[in-house]
Design goal:
Blueprint: H1 5-23, E1 29-35, E2 42-52, E3 55-59, H2 67-75, E4 77-82, E5 85-96, H3 105-114, E6 118-124
Antiparallel strand pairs: 1-2, 1-4, 2-3, 3-6, 4-5, 5-6
C-alpha cells in the first residue's frame, strides 16, 4: 500500500516547496517538469529517481494515481533536473516490482516496507 493521499496533499503544499531547490542537486532525487493535462500549466515535482545509463526509473511512493505521473504519460515524456543537469525524457512505461529488486538496498527496504512496488521508467530523448 503506497503512502496515503493525505500525506501526498500535505507534501504538495508544504514539503515540495522546501525540497524543490534541493532535489535538483541531491543523489537519488530529481525535479520532474511536466505540463498539466487540462491546464497546460508547468509543474515542478520533486521525486525519487535512479539512473542507469539512459534509463531513468522513478519510485512511485504514492502509487500510480498521482497527477505528475498522469501528466507525464499523457505528454509522452517530461524534463527532469537531477544533480544540476536538465535531461529530456521520453517513452514513459509504468512497471511493478513488489520486491523493488532494482533499487539500492536501503531504498529497497523502505519501498518494500511501504508496499510501494510501482515505478516509472523513461529513456533519454535523442
Amino acid at each position: 500500500m503506497p503512502l496515503p493521499a493525505t500525506l501526498a496533499r500535505f507534501n504538495r503544499v508544504v514539503t515540495n516547496r522546501l525540497m524543490r531547490p534541493l532535489a535538483a542537486h541531491l543523489p537519488f532525487l530529481a525535479v520532474v517538469e511536466h505540463r498539466g493535462r487540462r491546464s497546460g500549466r508547468l509543474y515542478r515535482t520533486p521525486v525519487n529517481v535512479f539512473v542507469d545509463d539512459d534509463r531513468y526509473r522513478f519510485a512511485l511512493t504514492y502509487g500510480t494515481g498521482v497527477d505528475w505521473l498522469r501528466n507525464v504519460r499523457a505528454a509522452g515524456g517530461c524534463t527532469v533536473i537531477t544533480r544540476g543537469r536538465t535531461v529530456s525524457l521520453t517513452n514513459p512505461r509504468p512497471g511493478h516490482d513488489p520486491a523493488a529488486a532494482w533499487a539500492p538496498t536501503p531504498v529497497r527496504w523502505v519501498l518494500t516496507t511501504l508496499g510501494a512496488g510501482d515505478y516509472l521508467d523513461c529513456t533519454v530523448a535523442r
